[in-house]
Predict the structure.
Amino acid sequence: MRIGFSSTHFTDANDNPTGGHSYGTGFAIAWQHGPLGRGDDRSSPNGAFVEDIIDAARERLTFFQDSKFACDANHLAICALTEALEHLDNRTRDRESRQVEGTHVV
């Protein structure tokens, strides 16, 4: 049973994603607001990245999988989250190779 959550997502004047919040029972996420920039203009993160939240969920399922609650469903969910992270890492590598990572350039 899912308890649910609510989210608000923000965009800038150019309709670029710039942050937001997601809340549910037991969690509150403030999403990264704006790009980090590149080189000397790179700033520190000010919010969560999707990859970190996925990794936290994967870590929690691994904790269950290493206990008496191990099951095929946990294993499959861990594999799916790992695959999601691989896709997002590939996206980051592609953006970095094009030197647009940390910007709103598509």
Q: What stands out?
A: The first strand starts at residue 5 and ends at 11. DSSP finds two helices and three strands in the chain. The mean pLDDT is 97. The chain has one domain: 5-97.
